[in-house]
Specification:
The structure holds two protein chains of two kinds. Chain A is α+β, with helices and mostly antiparallel strands. Helix content of chain A is 29%, strand content 21%. Classes of the chains: A alpha+beta, B alpha/beta.
Chain lengths: 337, 288
């Protein structure tokens, strides 16, 4: 028997979750876009948008966060761990591509050395994903072998019903089941006709692209220079990307006390790889764009067996110079392998 | 994975506190510091796990962390020595630190030189400028068990006589009759009383002409020196799998997360920094 969550019960659900101590986060309408933000009631949620401006990455791996506190007194140095304050959260209305992105990065933050800043938040957060009924020209999940209703990375998948009546509930993990047990009496058994899922046409042949990328001689291809000529190295694409995970450490403070922060960084920046000597392994923007594409579709899958891209399309959608992964991979698909 | 101080705690980015117990000026702007652990448990973990070739992140609070190799050998793990050139924010703060000051250390990270595979073989060390510290860690690790190795040759060069580091140890190596030491400085870098060679390291290496038979080469230097030294070693008949080097890429996390040490699919911090020339030649050369 399947269970249904009717839209008019959603306000009760939000209230119930909040009462149970969960912070409820969802897409909230800002001026011309929506952003994931904490909400107090269901009316604040903008569930009709195509895609919030940023991914949910920042909820697990904030743009900046303290790692350590230090104090220095005379000849004593004291280092205190910073642990994110425990916060149980439920993200209601995540996009499937955003949820997938978190699952993609789990192995990276977990291989050998476990980054508990990431995993504490992963464990404390329930991701309730709503399958997409709308898509725009930039959406490309299907090209990445995902779909507008992929369950990857989600704790609960909601499939929209016709006429905007509500959602079919598919609980996928224990975390998800726990959160929905909290509101069990607000759900109803039965089934209703589902709304049709968005159609996202395939934009490129991923396998053909990967074959091209894996060919050693293509590393030096002039293709990279041509395709990245427009890139201004602003790093918007990496910051908006659900899976880009590169970071930097910076100390803030003085000789006596301060904090060490972990900040988002980007392979688009020239300083990212610059040696002290002045030697820079990736000295040109084309080398840096090549690294980004190679990392996502050749190196990362080689290590973790998954592409470091979930097809949200934000890199193209919000690029100030109209380039992005889609354009690059589309261009690669047309090249001889 | 190397077990270390950070794997044993919740926050993998939290460093150990170290006290500076000695410092020594090597060359203009280049200094060696000797550090001691303050926490015995952390020291014990270091002793169990440190092997020559590994690196660490050395930090000054309020300034940040920088990556350097551990320049002391695995045979002397009561302390950590590291050598740095003052050039940026962290190294300036390190240069301003005095004996008795507390700094931080994360590590040891990365892989190692498999010196047990070198037993019974002749060794040639080729090094340039401030790249002697990583080589020196291997050199002393071998010299401290000298009987296990065949002939040991060290080729070391710097831009000028003043830029040679570990001058006191170079003198010691020169006096020893179980080491062949070949010193050189770049043309124009010699002083009036310079008695050694003048010329670039790869050229001098070719003149020294070590036999590739039963020989392991360990090379470390700036990218340009490595490039030409590899060509010279090839000319001399060395097999790429018998040539070891260590890559010194920029790093922040040291644990395969922050992304900047990537060369191709390799995370230098985790899969390196020690590679054979055969492994390096498979990497995308333009990204080195």
């Amino acid at each position: 028997m399947t269970r249904i969550l009717l839209r008019d019960k959603l306000d009760n659900c939000v209230a119930r979750w909040r009462k149970a101590g969960l912070t409820v986060i969802g897409p909230v309408k800002k001026e011309t876009f929506s952003s994931y933000a904490a909400v107090e009631n269901a009316a604040e949620l903008d569930l009709s948008m195509i895609m919030p401006d940023r991914s949910i990455k920042g909820l697990f791996f904030p743009q900046t966060e303290p790692m350590l506190h230090y104090t220095i007194k005379k000849q004593a140095l004291d280092i205190k761990d910073f642990t994110p304050p425990p916060e149980k959260r439920i993200i209601f209305g995540a996009r499937p591509c955003d949820a997938s992105g978190m699952a993609i990065d789990d192995p990276l933050f977990g291989w050998d050395y476990k980054d508990n800043f990431w995993f504490q938040r992963r464990n404390e957060t329930v991701i309730v994903t709503i399958a997409c009924t709308k898509a725009d020209d930039f959406c490309m999940c299907t090209s990445l072998k995902l779909a507008p209703d992929s369950t990857k990375g989600s704790d609960v998948m909601l499939r929209p019903l016709q006429n905007n009546r509500g959602w079919l509930v598919e609980e996928l993990t224990d975390r998800g089941r726990d959160a929905f047990n909290e509101i069990a009496d607000l759900l109803q058994d039965g089934s209703e006709p589902e709304a049709s899922i968005a159609v996202v046409p395939e934009k490129f042949d991923l396998d053909a692209c990967v074959t091209w990328l894996q060919k050693t001689e293509n590393f030096e291809s002039t293709f990279w220079k041509e395709i990245s000529m427009r890139c201004i190295g602003c790093a918007s694409c990496t910051f908006l990307c659900p899976t880009c995970h590169c970071f930097d450490f910076q100390d803030e403070g003085d000789t006596y006390s301060g904090i060490r922060r972990k900040n988002w960084d980007s392979c688009s920046f020239a300083l990212f790889t610059m040696h002290t000597s002045g030697h820079n392994p990736r000295a040109t923007q084309s080398a840096r764009w090549r690294q980004r594409i190679m990392h996502k579709f050749n190196y990362f899958p080689g290590k973790f067996n998954v592409n470091s891209c979930s097809g949200c399309g934000r890199c193209s959608r919000q690029c100030p110079v109209d380039m992005g992964i889609t354009e690059t991979l589309q261009a690669i698909s047309t090249l001889q392998p | 994975m190397t077990e270390n101080i950070q794997t044993a705690q919740q926050n993998i980015y939290k460093p150990a506190i170290m006290k500076i117990v000695a410092r020594h000026d090597e060359a203009p702007g280049v200094r060696t510091m000797k550090l001691e652990f303050q926490n015995p448990a952390e020291h014990e973990l270091f002793k169990q796990n440190y092997r020559t070739g590994m690196f660490g992140l050395y930090g000054v609070y309020g300034e940040g962390e920088s990556t350097f190799c551990v320049a002391s050998p695995e045979t002397r793990n009561e302390y950590i020595e590291f050598t740095f050139r003052q050039s940026g924010r962290v190294t300036t703060a390190l240069a301003n630190s005095d004996i008795g000051d507390l700094i931080t250390f994360r590590g040891p990270y990365g892989n190692r030189f498999p010196i047990e595979k070198f037993y019974g073989k002749n060794l040639i060390f080729v090094s340039g400028g401030i790249a002697l510290p990583p080589t020196r860690s291997v050199i002393w690790s071998c010299l401290d068990q000298r009987e296990k190795f065949g002939k040991i040759t060290i080729v070391y060069g710097a831009r000028t006589v003043a830029d040679l580091v570990y001058k006191h140890e170079l003198e010691e190596w020169e006096r020893r009759d179980d080491i062949d030491l070949v010193l050189t400085v770049d043309p124009g870098g010699e002083s009036p009383d310079w008695k050694h060679r003048v010329g670039f390291v790869p050229t001098v290496l070719e003149q020294a002409a070590p036999s590739p038979d039963n020989c392991i080469a360990v090379i470390c230097g700036p990218p340009i020196m490595i490039k030409f030294t590899l060509i010279s070693l090839k000319k001399l008949g060395f097999d790429e799998s018998n040539v070891y080097t260590t890559l010194e890429n920029r790093m922040k996390c040291g644990v395969g997360k922050c992304g900047r040490c990537n060369v191709g699919s390799i995370y230098v911090c985790k899969e390196g920094p020690v590679f054979t020339a055969a492994e390096v030649s498979k990497m995308p050369q333009a990204d080195l």
